[in-house]
Specification:
mainly alpha; 14 helices; two-stranded antiparallel sheet; 309 residues
Amino acid sequence: MSAITLSRPQPKRSPTFWQDTLRGYLFILPVVLGLLIWTFGPMIASAYYSLTDYKITNTPEFIGFQNYVDLFTRDRDFGRSLSVTIRYALMFVALGQVVSLAIAVLLTQKVRGLTFFRTFFYLPIIVPYAASAVLWKFLYNKEYGPINGFIQGLGLPPINWLGAPDIALFSLVLMSIWAGAVTTIIYVAGLQHIPEELLDAAKIDGANGLQRFIRVTIPMLSPTIFFNVVTNVIGAFQFFVPAYIMTEGGPVKATYFYNFNLYEKAFDWLEMGYASAMAWVMFAIIIVLTLLIFRSSPLWVYYESEVRE
């Protein structure tokens, strides 16, 4: 008997298939061109310039990895600015998570005027970062700033928030935490996603409020914490605008951030090749830190299915 082979009927294309395909590509074309022209293009160009001696006014001269060698062996500001950035990142990420989570817990309580409070804590997102920096510079002013006015009203001496080397960096951390409303909103969403039956079950088992928060809320919220830690670390290493407006890297380079150092090399010294090398070093640092956080996530990040098991 001869075998009978059945051929699967080929699906028919719509008469407007090519028109729909072309229309789809046209819709995504602005985004694709934006990535190619304004993101990937400059990245490739900066990778090349980092291997050159390029002072904007002169033609780039290829020098290999000399910029990277000079960065690690001859530039004293490299280590100093990186140290400032790391200390800022540690304080901002640690305090930012605690404060944002605490505010998020308050914003998920069933109280009157909850919509008003949520809108109030959302306001820092609406205010431009540069405008926030100008506002906080006024608030921190030693002579007529409202914060020192309140402190003096309590009978305490005024604090030189932006003029003292041991306080200036922490002052910028406080300002950044105030502007971190996005982190708070993400925590609010994460808290609302926690199943009520888990908290009720823990309550029936005799767990008090603190025990429920530590044993149920934090594990269920750990994916949200993981996301916020990653994004906050990346944002902390890109910190620049408030330091440029409020302290200009001072006092005594106490707020001389890595990006401030990079900005000076590029636009004050016109060392575009050297600044490009600095940018790629910072990119590598952020990638390494992000990978380390991802590698550590199995130790402390739990998902709903794992908690239920």
